[in-house]
Amino acid sequence: MAGVALPLLVFVGGALTLAIYKCPDEKGYWPIALAALTLAVLLAKDKRQAVNTAVAGMSQRLVPLMVCAWLFSAILGQYMRVSGMIPVLVEFLRSLQVTGGVFVGVTFLVASVTATCTGTAVGTILMVTPVMFPLGAETGANPTLVLGAILAGGAFGDDYSPLSDTTIASAETQGVDIGESSRVRFKYVIGPAL
Fold this sequence. Notes:
Blueprint: H1 2-20, H2 26-43, H3 47-58, H4 62-83, H5 85-96, H6 100-118, H7 121-139, H8 143-160, H9 165-174, H10 178-193
């Protein structure tokens, strides 16, 4: 029983530790996943079968798709940051004198589009917050609502983005086309967004 439960406990415990110490990122999870996998192999009765099972799991079609999604998300996120797209948007909003509640709605749209384009809610929050939150203070928007709009927009865009790792994983594990999965998910997320 320990051979089954202990590696899972190592992984979950490690992930929770990273979250508690506010450092959850992909760099931190790799060593934890590797330690859990190594422990699983060491505790297995048939070590050869355990290794073959791990290799078979890593060689599934889903793994390279997920790696590509993470790479493309990182590239798009960097491109949006370097291209100056967000500062241009900020200047545009200033020129229109968008204020208050309208600014909150615009912030939600900016976060939604950013998350859809990058496929990452966390990356969206990290990109959009430093720009839109201070600008919201300048426009007189409620800071709590601005942060809520950023979080909600990031979650909304990430939920149906075809680049999102969760969209890809759910589509692949269910044997569904990724584009079709995004289209179906959209009708479920648009209601709460409105």
